Structure formats: C-alpha cells, structure tokens
Amino acid sequence: MTRQRRVILEELRKLDFHPTADEVYEIVRRRLPRISLSTVYRDLEVLCDYGEIQVLEIGCSKKHFDPETRSHYHARCSRCGRVENLPVEPFTYLERAFSDLCEYEITGHRMELIGLCPVCRQQKGQEEAPGG
User: Fold this and answer.
1) Of the candidates 17, 51, 69, which is a domain's last residue?
2) pLDDT at site 60
3) CATH of the domain at 5
4) Which residues, 6 or more positions from 62, have their beta carbon under 8 angstroms from its beta carbon?
C-alpha cells in the first residue's frame, strides 16, 4: 500500500457519495498537490484489484468508486450524476427466486434507484417557482 493509495482510500472513506476518478483527483490533490490524474486512475484500479474499493459502472457514462465492498444498493441522481448508498440490506431472496425462473446460476445482483438528489430537487423546485 503506497502512500498515495492510502491517501486515496482515506479520502474515499470520508465521503458520503461515490465520486468519479476526476472528483477523487480533485479531492486528493488537496493533500498531495503533485499527484497526477493518471496516478489516481491507476491507483483506483489497483485498489479495486486488491478488493479495497469497488468500481460502479451503473447507468452513467463515468465510473464511480465506492469504498464499501459488501453487497449494497445505490441511488443515482438523474440530474447531476451523484451516486450514494441506500440504507437497506440486499434482498437476497431475489437471487433464489430468479434461480428458480431461469437456467442461470445467479451469483449476485445490483440495484440502482434513479431520482433527484436533495440538492437537485431543491434547485428544481426553485426553478419551477414563480419568478425562479
């Protein structure tokens, strides 16, 4: 575990959302001003390979990074792209139910709910208000 990877992991664990690599770069640069974007990309991939973080490639064009590696669900803002955890345990019965319905060996599942984050919801309300 290099110092740079340790800082990336520490910064990821402080966040309440799942940033893109570019966002991680901007955050980590506050502590490591000389770090390059390519180093951040490479170290994020290495941390994924080590099982320290997971990469989310859900319904959006950019990868997001999550320090929580246990199975869990996400919500994604359809306006700004913010991705965060949902506070609910995975529905493991879904895997059993679908195993009975198809010939696949189900090894897991992912769920993403799509909506507006609190900030975008508030902005939308202000835009829709008279004179807004």
Assistant:
1) 69
2) 63
3) 1.10.10.10
4) 20, 21, 22, 81
Domain count, the chain: 2
Q: Residue 132: is its pLDDT beyond 60?
A: no
CA distance 18 to 54: 10
Question: Tokens representing 46?
Answer: 């290495």
pLDDT digit string, tens, across residues 97-117:
888 888 888 888 888 889 999
The residue behind tokens 């609910």 is 88
Which one has a higher pLDDT value, 131 or 5? Answer: 5
Torsion of CA 1, 17, 54, 45, to 10 degrees: -50
On whether the CB atoms of residues 59 and 76 are closer than 8 A, the answer is yes
pLDDT above 70 for 1 = yes
> Residue 47 — φ and ψ, nearest 5°?
-60, -35
Q: Rg (Cα) of the chain, in Å, rounded?
A: 18
- Please indicate, yes or no, whether residues 61 and 2 belong to a single structural domain of this protein: yes
Give yes or no for residue 87 having a pLDDT over 70. yes
Q: Tell me, yes or no, if the pTM score tops 0.85.
A: no
If asked whether residues 32 and 49 sit together in one domain, one would say: yes
